[in-house]
Amino acid sequence: MSKKCVIANDHGAVELVEKLKEHLEKRGYDVNWLGVKENVSVDYPDMAEKCAKEFLSGGYEFAIVACSTGIGISIAANKIKGIRCALVMDSHSAEMTKRHNNSNMLSFGGKVEYKEDPVKILDAYLDATFEGGRHQRRIDKITALES
């Protein structure tokens, strides 16, 4: 059974998402790319909703959303009940959002000048494991805020 993830992006992150998708496929993921594949203007809240709803339909390990900065699309994604989307800027934040927050969605910015390769940031998330324990208690409190 292959590992699956879903990705959506707006026009501000086409090249970055292509790069992340290729890397995920090399790591054995089946990638469902719902975003735009060329520079055609779309609204990032629509892409966030589309990705979140597909993720929540089941069968995916995680999701990725991307816009120019990663900010707007992550805010929109986090409005969807059941989504814990983390805007990751480096390997440390990516690792820790998996270990402590068990985030089920990552956000990237296509126009952001990262200090390290976004592929390395993604790998830090993929290679980390949720620690549970006191962190699960905190996630339960975050989830309770949705109601």
Protein described:
The chain is α/β, with parallel strands linked by helices and 147 residues long. It is 43% helix and 18% strand. It contains six helices and five strands, in the order βαβαβαβαβαα. The chain has helices at 14-26, 44-56, 71-77, 91-99, 118-127, 134-144, and strands at residues 3-9, 29-33, 62-67, 85-87, 105-109. It has a five-stranded parallel sheet with strand order 2-1-3-5-4, sandwiched between helices. Helix 4 packs parallel to helix 5. The longest helix has 13 residues, at 14-26. The N and C termini lie far apart (34 Å).
List keywords for this structure.
147 residues; five-stranded parallel sheet; 5 strands
Q: How is the topology of this model organized?
A:
Layout: E1 3-9, H1 14-26, E2 29-33, H2 44-56, E3 62-67, H3 71-77, E4 85-87, H4 91-99, E5 105-109, H5 118-127, H6 134-144
Parallel strand pairs: 1-2, 1-3, 3-5, 4-5
